[in-house]
Each structure stands twice: as C-alpha cells, then as structure tokens.
Specification:
The protein has about 1250 residues and is an alpha+beta fold. The protein has 41 helices and 36 strands. Among the domains are: about 280 residues, no CATH class; about 160 residues, no CATH class; about 80 residues. The longest helix is centred in the C-terminal third of the chain and has 28 residues. The protein is globular, with a radius of gyration of 37 Å. GO terms for molecular function: cysteine-type deubiquitinase activity; proteasome binding.
Length: about 1250
C-alpha cells in the first residue's frame, strides 16, 4: 500500500534525526499535554497505530486490552456467536461530529453486537492533535503524524451495572488514549448486547409457520387472499423494518397510526405468535373480540425528537432503542443477500489513518515484531517509525527489542531508507556511554535500571539517571521509596565519586526542588500557584495509597521550604497528620507515634523497614484471645528455661525437640509481644512502633542469630515482601506414582521450631523442596505382611483397630503420618539441629540476645510471605510456653496454640483396582484454596481444588482430602503463587459465613460419603460441560455456510419487496418505504414491492443442505440446559450442608507482583459490627460488610483468610478497646484537660506569598 505524503523523494540525510535515539534529538522541544485519561495508562502498556487497533478490534484480538478475554469468560445469551471478523455498519441517526467530539455508532451485520466509538480532544490543544499532514521523512521527535492508541483501562463493573438497561444493555466500556505527548485525543469504546433476543429472530425467520398461516388463510378466505404469494414467508423482517421506519419518521402524536391485528399481511406474517414482539417494542395493545376474532390493534408510542448534538439521536433513549432494533432487522435483511455499506472506512478516517487491505490473509500480522511496534504489514516507513518512537516512550524495558523489531520490519518492506535508519538506531544504542557499574554479577543494577525505565547495561550519565528517577516519580508517585532505593543501588555500584555524589544527593534526604516540580507537573521555570496546590490536594484526596500521598506532600514541602511559605508548610503538616504519613528526615513535624490519638480507633503499627506483612499479622493476632492471653499473662504460661524443661518440650504433631538457642529466642519474642500488646491497649498515640528485636525474633532463624558475627552484612535497603515463590502445596493432580513411605531423616538447616507443627513450605530461593508433604515410615514391629502406624488420635471416634493394617490389598484402611519439614521420629533428629551442648548456656543466651538487638535482616528474609511468617510466630509462641496436656495415645503435647489454630486433615489415596483407601494424617496450621486458572470462582470452588476427588490417570490413582477435626480459628491460605513464578490474581468470592460440612471426613460406607461421591461426579461433569461449551463458542457455526453452498448470487424472488432499482445509502435501505400503517380491514393488504413492467424472472433453486444450523443450535442449547440443571442440582445438595458454620474474622491482603508489593489486613469487629482496615500506621473504618466483601471478592488481593467457628467467636476473638487515660488533677484539685484532638486543617491563608494564595471569587 502506498500513501503520497508529498515527501521529497530524495533521501534526507538528517544526521541529527538518524543518529539520535527517540527523545534525544538536540534542539527539539516536545510539549506534554497531560489529560486525566493519559494518567490512567498503566506502566509498560503497549500501544498501536489506529489501523492495527481497528484490525484487532474487528478480529476480537486486542494485544493489550483484555476486553475479549473477559467476553470469552462471560456467559452471554445472544442470538449469534461473536467469534468472527466483525462487519460494522452505521446504526441509525446516532453518529455526529462537533469541534471537540466525534461519535460513530455501529452494529455488526453478523452478530448484532453494537460498537459505539466516542472520540474527544481538548479544544485548546486542537492544533497539537496528531495529523497525517505532519508526515515527512525522516520522522522527527517533534512530529506526530498519527495517533498511537494505548489502553487506559475499563469502566468499573458497578458503573456498568447501574447504566445497563433495556434501552442500552452495555457490556463494556474501554478507554484508549493517544500516547503522543502533545496530543489530547482519546477514544471510548462501548460494546453492548443485541437488542433483539433470539426468540424475536426465530419468529421473524420462521418461514414454515408463515407458509402454514398463509395456507390456512387462503383456505378460510380464498377471495381475500387471492393475490397473496408464497414470497410472503420471507418478508416479515421487511415489514417490521417499515413499521419502525414510519414510527421514527412520525411527527404528530395527534393521529397515531395503528396496526390492525386483522390486516391480511400482519395476521399472516406476525399474528398472535408475534404479539410479544410488539409488546416489547412498547406498542399499546387493544383487544376487540367479535365472534371469537380479535379485531384490536397495536398503537406505537411517539418517540421524543432527537436531542443530541447536530440533531443526532441520544443513545439509551426510546428513540435510540427503536433505531437499534431497526438496524438489527436490517442486518437480517442484508444477510439474505442485499448489499450493505460498511462504516469501517469512516472509522479509519475518524482515527486519522487508512485501511490496510488483506491483513487477515497475511501471516505476518501477528508476528511479534508487528505486535510489539503496533503496526500492520506493508504500512509505510513513516508509520513504522512513528509507532517505534511512541513505543520507545512506553516500553523503556524493551528498547533493544524494539530496535530489533524495527530492523525486521525494514527487511520485510525491503526499504533501504528504513533499513539505514534502523541500523543507525541500533549502532547508536549499542555505543552509548561506557558502563558506569564496576560489577553487576547478581543483576541488581540491571533490575534497578529496568525499574527506572532504562535498558541495561548502565551506560547512562548521572543526569540521565536523575531524569529517569524524576520521571518515575511523576508517573508512579507511590513507588518513590523503591525508586530511591534503586538509585542508591546504582550509585553504590559506581567507582566515580562525582557520579555517586550526584545520585546520592538526589536519593538521600529531602526531595529536591526540581524533583518536586516534576512530581507536581510543573515546568522547571514555572511558579507554584494556587491551582497547583489545589490539584495536589485533589490527588491526595483521591489517592488510596499512602506512599503516593506522601510523595505529593514531600513535593509540596520542598516548594514550601524554597519559598518559605508558612501556610503551605502547615498544610503539609496537617495533611500528613490526617493521613497517618511518617515524617521524612529533616522535617520538624512529629511522626505518627507522636500524634494524638482517636480513642475510638485501635492503635496502628509503624513500618520499621519492610514489615507491613508482620504488622498485619500482629494486628490480627492481637484480636485472637488465646494469643493475647499468652502475651499479656506470659508468666502463667512460660516454659522454664532449664535444660530439663527444654529437653522434655516436644513441639507440634511430629514432636520436635528444640535446643537452648531456640528457647531463648522464643522467650525473647514472647516478652516483646507482651510489651507490644500492652502498648496497643494503652497507647495515647495514633500508632506505636514494634521493636526491631521483636521483628528479628520472628523473621530471623536461630541459626542466623547464632552466626551473627560471621554472616551479618549491610544491605542497600529492603525490598517489599513477596508472595511465596514456592510451588503451591500440591493442588489436586500432582502425584506421579504410587504413594510410598520414605525412609530416613530429612536433613535441613532451618530451625525445628519453624517447621515443627505445620506443613508450611520452603521458598524457591532456598532451593529446597517442600518437605512438609514427605512421608516418613514409622518403625514397626509387625509381621512382614502387616505394618503398624502411629495414629494422631484426637477424637474419641478413633478406633484402636485403625492402627493395624495389612498390605495395600487389605480391606482395612491403611494410614501413615505426614511429618513436618524437619520431621523425623523422636530421637532421629538431625545432629545439626541439636545444639544444646555446643556452647555453655550463658554463652548461647548472650549471643542470641545480642544478635536480636543488632542483627540486620538481609534480603533472604524478605522472601518470606505471610503464611510463613504466621508459622514462625506460632512456632515461637509454642516454643515459649509449656504444654497444658499430653495426648496419651500419640504423646503429642497440646497447648493453646495447637488447640486454637491447628486443623487435622486426612489425605486418602487409592489405586484403581483397590477397594480401600490408604490414608495419611497431618496437623496443619491452615488449609489451602486454589484460585481458578482463568476468571473468578467461589471460595468453595477454590477449596474444592484441594479437597475434592482427583483422578490421576498416569498413576492410576484417585485421591481426595478430608478434614478430621477443626480448630476454633481456621486459617485459609489462597495460594496465588504459580509454578512459573507468576502470581494468580484471579478473584475469589469470599463468603461471610463459610460452611465446611462438605469437606469433613466421613466413613466410606456412610450415606454422607456416597452423596459426596455423587457431588464430585456432578462437579466434574460441570467442569467438562464448561470446557466443551467454551470450545464450541470459540468456533464459528458451520450451519449457515453449509446451507448456503451453491448460492453464488442472490436469487430473485417473485413479488419480492426488492426491485432491481433498489439502492443502499449509508447502510440504510433507500427504497420507497411508503407502506402506511394498517387501517380498517377493508383497506385490504399492504403492497411491499415496487410495481414491475413485466413478469419477474424465476430461477431454479439448487438443492442445498437443510437443518444443519438448527442442529448446531440445538446441541448448544442442550449443553447450556444440562449445565444449568447440573449447577442447580449441585447447589441444592450444598444448600443442605450448613451445620458447621465459620464466620469471617480477618482478611490479609497483598497488592503487587510475586516478588514485591504491600500487605494490609481487614478485621471484623463482631461487637460493633464494623470492619477496620489496618494499613501500618493507618486504621480506617468501614461499616458496610457487603461493600467490604464486594471489594475483597472482585480483586486478586485477598491472600490469607481467618475464620472463626460461629458459636465460638465471642470466646476466641474480639477487638480490644483502647484504654483511655485516667483524668488527673492539679494542686488545686481541678481536672487537667488534655487536648487529644487532631490538629484542624489550616483555613487561614493570609500568610501565603502571592503565588500560593487562593483565588477569591467575590
């Protein structure tokens, strides 16, 4: 394809353009016009040229926008499938154009889905909107010939539900914005469902019934129907089209024209079977029965006149609804063979581009180099380079890949100029400044550069890095702390003192003025006016992220310091106080721990360096009464710190011993926890600070603490805590062989207390497998063909007979015990773990306590996730207290922690040819739920992936898991880590009340178990049906194609409503639609064709396949009906299983990627019936449970759920009330009043210097 841009054919040897990477051409200034829509662009979002955007839209294949992925996952009840290349035609009178907006309303000829394109731009920047008239070669940095569209997100489900109506059943609203810096062009795409239901279309196209009606009418009144022909059978859509046309053209409401029910054509084509269509169209029906015949009529309402710009019809009105219906009726007519005019050329023109022909036939269109640059094959070099420059700005981490794609496309086009340009770009990129890093063996500097949007290696001067840092803060202010850490890492890797100094001055201390201006969106030479302050305050109010708010306030403070504006400083101080933001170094404003408190809110916990996950757990555990009882009354539970007590203390279900070092750390932790809980009850401040000693006791192993002097090394700074990177504890189908029992001890360097009582898992960074699921053979004295296993018998229902089993062929149930990660039988402990004699007690105590005070936590600790830290806390508490009882049958030592949190599960496994199950019993501190691989699911479905039966074909095994005993407080881990190192962010619907009946253990010969087996089968069938239905819907039906075989051209029909002179204009029928609405019966029937001068030609219709389309439709309906019935049956079964209710008490959430992010916790106060969000120092209140659950159930943030048995919630959990200080009196006996109210926001702005003072509107 060639486009004449009036470009000089001679090569323009512009060295400045060729030899400069995008954005670095000397002397070229590019203005950036910010818009709210541009601010919504996500980081690293790919964009594309408008021609490609249209091509991807029409083919349901957006590269970045997930619109069609969501559509595939949705259950849409539409008459036609949408999995095809859309053919769009203009819809009604709904399109228009103004000075700053353009709307194109369209409908697909084939699937009847409606696509509305709403384009807008800012009038004051109209001259800077991208335009092809700016095209030239070579493309300069300051030229913007074509838009580059980037997805800016979707409208919320809540908004769409509110707007969804009969007149406008909207499904999605997607936002796209041009990424060219000066351009303000944006596109809003709205997709809505067909207005005509399937049954409408079935009635209009039921030719057989119409023929039958006509035959009966002729038999009953042959004279009246003498001129009626069989062609009437196919004319129902044309008649309805005419009715709607006349309705839209009607202007006088005084004489509404009715449709007589007895009109010959209406009674045959429509009749009583179609009355519901006209009722849906809101026609007023009258009934007038005479001699058993209804002589009534249908009278249409008069639509309001068009009220949109330039006389256009407003979408979502009754007139718009009628236009939508008429357009869909015309789509049916067009599909019968009448030509239609598509609106895609107009759409290309609206977006400032030209259609590229035959793209669907090109094998290159979806090759990575074209999707990466966002262009189509055979587009001119100017378009390719324009897209390259835009993607360069958007994808800083893929710049080398962009250059490679540019070179590949140049080779495809065989364009010498483009090839030279690409080669020059590659050469310049590779020959940038020499590497500034001394070494980067571990890739840390490369990661830091990528974080700042720069391509490794570090060949950048200090000024470029500072500019990248400022751009990062301006685009993502919530990442300011991380950006500073990255800049510090880069500085520390360099040996150039000047280079280091520049970076350190920017990263350390208070924000610089230049950075503050970048964050606030000011020009470097601009002054700070009241509008900038107002804009910053609005951003702070709208932001839900504390770090983002802090960055804006730091920027305002930097400007306030420069101008010495006291009122602005007071404003910053007040905003920090109101938002619970920690004061940066050098500021005179007190931090959160020094601020007066609101005694109606619990005390927050300050982040002491990457401890948001620990803070969330501590706040939650403070509300669990047994834990609080241990902490606040520790002396009543304390384990004696002598060798005999330590030796006799056995931890967890696998009865692990501990050494003195572990006992000392545990007691130190318990004491620190006691102090913290006391502070949480009595503090008069907004937040208190956990001690570093407490954090170290939880987050560092005893081995690390004892080797403090050897291994402690400083690090540049902490990284945000990740989600677990270990492979998930096996979801259902994972076994690859028979269930065997492994001999021998499992050696590992982790502390026994960290793994003794749970199936907590190792992280991948430690390069160890998850031993919590390994099985250890128990020494046996049985005969050769029998094995005796130790049974963890906590319930009275366990029978001694269960402890003996024959071989796998036995009719008795066999069982083993799952050991912990370090689990071995009693005295078979790893010698490396038993350190009781390694040092004298005083030496061990001294080393451990000293290390707790001074040890620095390294990045290795940062790999722990909430579930692991929870395990560490519980294990430390167990090691710090003495047992309350000992189970006589198992020797397991019980105490409050085990009794409160630990669940007993049984894993059943059976070979296909066996009659009995082998079972394995384990104590776990949580149960695991697995989100759906795609889309959302309920918590029950997520738990079902762990507990329900799985068939493992390759191993010929079936397996399932059941719960033997439940604790009062139950933890549910939503396992979001995936095997490929990514996070599963699919939502899990979280119920307020969780019923666990369906997962409880039951005898295999009981009715309960038999019903469970049936429910497994139904659930499996539902899963199969959903998969089959998805595959069927992904394929275009073949029925219409096969039934149309042999029809090379439309066949003329006698007395058709279409004559040879019929024409089309703008996709709307243009024949003489003068068919008046029916009057009395004596008016005879309505003509629907032009008079012809001669007999109409007839042709012989070839025999073609019949019934294929209805068969396909019938099969799809059968699948849908069965799926619905199965789901209803399963729901009825589960509805009766509600005897074991657990109430949701807390939800720990994580936002971010697998290896980075932030944690917070929601906690339900049952007494006050409110939810509180604990986010480090901040504590917020939400009173509507439904809103909280809706928020939690529609995102991938919930990670750790805490339920409490409904009948035990008052005994086990509550939110302690903060203790108010007692009133004191002075020497005269008067009560001393203390002002604990937060400082009010500054209202007086008279001290503002002129650029800061608010504008007055007197």
């Amino acid at each position: 394809m060639a486009i004449d841009y009036n470009i000089n054919p001679q090569r323009d040897l512009d060295d400045g353009t060729y030899a400069s990477l995008p954005g670095t051409t000397p002397g070229e200034f590019v203005q950036y016009n910010a818009t709210p829509m541009k601010a919504r662009m996500r980081k690293d979002a790919e964009g594309c040229h408008p021609s490609r955007w249209i091509q991807e839209l029409l083919n349901n294949n957006f590269t970045t926008c997930d619109l069609f992925d969501r559509a595939r996952a949705a259950k849409l009840n539409t008459p036609y499938t949408w999995h095809h290349t859309h053919r769009l035609t203009i819809n009604g009178n709904q399109s228009f154009c103004t000075n700053t907006t353009r709307v194109l309303s369209s409908v697909c000829l084939d699937c009847h889905f409606h696509f509305v394109f709403k384009m807008a731009w800012e009038e004051q920047h109209n001259s800077q909107v991208c335009s092809p008239r700016h095209a030239r070669w070579p493309v300069r940095d300051a030229q913007f010939p074509w838009h580059h569209l980037v997805w800016a997100g979707s409208d919320t489900e809540m908004n769409l539900v509110k707007e969804n109506s009969k007149y406008y059943p909207i499904l999605a609203r997607e936002y796209f914005v041009c990424s060219a810096p000066p351009c303000t062009f944006q596109v809003t795409l709205e997709v809505s469902e067909p207005r005509m239901a399937s049954w409408w279309i079935d009635l209009l196209l039921d030719h057989d019934t119409i023929r039958q009606n006509l035959r009966l009418a002729k038999e009953q009144d042959p004279e009246r129907y003498a001129v009626a022909t069989d062609d009437w059978a196919e004319q129902a859509p044309m008649n309805l089209n005419t009715y709607l046309k006349n309705l839209l053209e009607a202007t006088s409401p005084e004489k509404p024209r009715s449709i007589s029910k007895r009109n010959k054509r209406f009674s045959v084509l429509f009749g009583p079977r179609c009355f519901s269509i006209f009722r849906e169209l809101e026609f007023e029906e009258t009934v007038d029965e005479q001699d058993g015949i209804d002589g009534g009529s249908f009278t249409p309402p008069l639509p309001s006149p068009p009220g949109g710009p330039t006389g256009a019809t407003e979408i979502g009105t009754y007139r718009g609804f009628v236009e939508d219906i008429r357009s869909e009726v015309q789509c049916i007519i067009h599909r019968s063979g009448e030509p239609a005019e598509l609106c895609t050329p107009g759409l290309h023109a609206d977006l400032g581009c030209v259609e590229v022909n035959n793209t669907n036939d090109s094998h290159l269109v979806n090759i990575r180099r074209y999707t990466l640059l966002g262009v189509l094959p055979n587009q001119p070099k100017e378009i390719v380079v324009n897209a390259y420059k835009r993607q360069w700005e958007l994808l800083p981490n893929k710049r080398k890949e962009l250059i490679d794609a540019l070179m590949g496309i140049a080779n495809d086009l065989n364009d010498e100029q483009l090839a030279d340009y690409a080669a020059t770009q590659s050469s310049v990129f590779d020959s940038q400044l020499p590497t500034q890093s001394n070494t980067d063996d571990d890739g840390v500097v490369s990661e830091a550069l990528a974080f700042l949007g720069l391509q490794p290696p570090n060949k950048y001067n200090a000024e470029t890095l500072v500019a990248a840092f400022r751009q990062k803060l301006s685009q993502e202010p919530k990442m300011a702390n991380s950006a500073r850490q990255m800049l510090l890492l880069i500085a520390q890797s360099s040996t150039d003192d000047t280079y280091q100094a520049i970076l350190l001055m920017e990263a350390n201390g208070k924000m610089s003025v230049a950075t503050a201006k970048a964050v606030l969106g000011m020009k470097e030479d601009g002054s700070l006016g009241p509008e900038v302050v107002a804009a910053a305050r609005t951003k702070i109010e709208l932001s839900n992220d504390k770090e983002e708010k802090a960055t804006y306030l730091d920027a305002l403070e930097a400007i306030a310091d420069l101008t010495n504006a006291m009122d602005l400083k007071q404003l910053v101080a007040t905003q920090r106080q109101e938002n619970g933001i920690e004061i940066p170094k050098g500021s005179a404003v007190p931090d959160a721990s020094g601020r007066p408190a609101n005694y109606d809110l619990p005390v927050g916990l300050e982040n002491i360096g990457n401890t948001c996950y620990l803070n969330s757990l501590l706040q939650y555990l403070f509300t669990v009464k047994p834990v609080r009882d241990i902490a606040l009354n520790y002396e009543n539970f304390k384990l004696e710190l002598n060798d005999e007590s330590i030796k006799q203390r056995l931890l967890g279900g696998n009865k692990m011993q501990m050494d003195r070092g572990e006992a000392v750390v545990a007691q130190a932790f318990a004491q620190e926890l006691s102090d913290l809980f006391n502070n949480l009850e009595t503090s008069d401040k907004v937040a208190t600070r956990p001690s570093q000693r407490l954090a170290n006791a939880v987050l560092l192993s005893t081995h690390t603490l004892l080797n403090d002097s050897k291994s402690a090394e400083p690090v540049a700074g902490p990284k945000p805590p990740p989600l677990p990177t270990r492979p998930p504890p096996e979801p259902p189908v994972k076994s690859s062989g028979d269930v065997e029992m492994a001999n021998g001890a499992v050696k590992e360097e982790r502390d026994p207390v960290e793994t003794a009582s749970t199936v907590s898992s190792q992280t991948l960074v430690e390069d160890l497998s998850d031993h919590s699921y390994e099985k250890v053979e128990v020494p046996s004295t049985a005969t050769d063909d029998q094995t005796t296993d130790t049974v963890m018998a906590l319930g009275e229902s366990d029978s001694p007979a269960e402890t003996v089993r024959p071989t796998l062929k036995s009719t008795e149930t066999s069982e083993t015990i799952i050991k912990g990660a370090n689990g071995t039988a009693n005295e078979e402990q790893d010698a490396d773990v038993s350190m009781g004699n390694a040092d004298e007690p005083q030496t061990v105590d001294h080393k451990v306590l000293t290390a707790l005070e001074h040890q620095k936590r390294s990045s290795g600790t940062d790999q722990q996730d909430v579930e692991e830290v929870m395990g560490s806390i519980l294990n430390r508490l167990q090691a710090a207290i003495r047992p309350s009882s000992i189970d006589e049958s198992t020797g397991i030592q019980l105490e409050k922690i085990m009794e409160t949190f630990f669940v007993t599960t049984i894993n059943y496994t059976k070979k296909f040819d066996d009659k009995t199950y082998q079972k394995e019993i384990s104590f776990d501190r949580s149960i695991t739920a697995f989100p759906a691989p795609e889309g959302s699911c309920s918590l029950y479905d997520a738990l079902g992936r762990n507990f329900d039966q799985q068939i493992i074909e390759e191993s010929k095994l079936s397996r399932y898991t059941a719960i033997k005993t439940l604790p009062p407080v139950l933890h549910v881990l939503i396992q979001r880590s995936q095997s490929m190192g990514s996070k599963n962010g699919n939502p899990v619907e979280i119920p307020e009340t969780l019923y666990l009946d369906r997962y409880m253990d039951a005898p295999h010969d009981s009715p309960t178990f038999q019903q469970r087996v049936q429910s497994w089968a139904v659930a499996s069938r539902i899963s199969d049906l959903k998969a089959q239905k998805a595959r069927a819907e992904a394929v275009i039906p073949t029925g219409p194609f096969l039934e149309s075989c042999g029809e090379e051209e439309p066949t003329p029909v006698v007395n058709s409503a279409w004559g040879e002179d019929d024409t089309m204009e703008d996709g709307v029928l243009d024949f003489e639609e003068n068919w008046d609405f029916d009057g009395p019966v004596v008016d005879d029937f309505l003509l629907v064709s032009h008079p012809t001068n001669g007999p109409s030609p007839t042709t012989t219709v070839p025999v073609k396949p019949q019934g294929i389309e209805p068969t396909e439709r019938s099969v799809r309906e059968m699948m849908s009906n069965e799926l619905r019935q199965r789901e209803e049956d399963l729901e009825k079964h589960h509805a009766g299983l509600k005897n074991i209710p657990y109430r949701l008490h807390a939800v720990i959430c994580h936002r971010g990627q697998l290896m980075s992010g932030h944690y917070w916790v929601w906690i339900h106060d049952f007494e006050q019936d409110v939810w509180r969000k604990y986010n480090d120092s901040n504590v917020d209140v939400k009173r509507n449970t439904d809103e909280v659950l809706a928020t939690l159930s529609t995102s991938g943030e919930p990670y750790f759920l805490c339920y409490v048995r409904d009948e035990d919630k008052d005994a086990y959990v509550n939110v302690p009330r903060r203790q108010r200080p007692e009133q004191t009196t002075d020497a005269d006996g008067d009560v001393v009043v203390t002002n604990n109210e937060p400082t009010p926001a500054a209202e007086n702005t008279q001290d503002f210097s002129p650029p800061f003072g608010p504008q007055r509107n007197d």
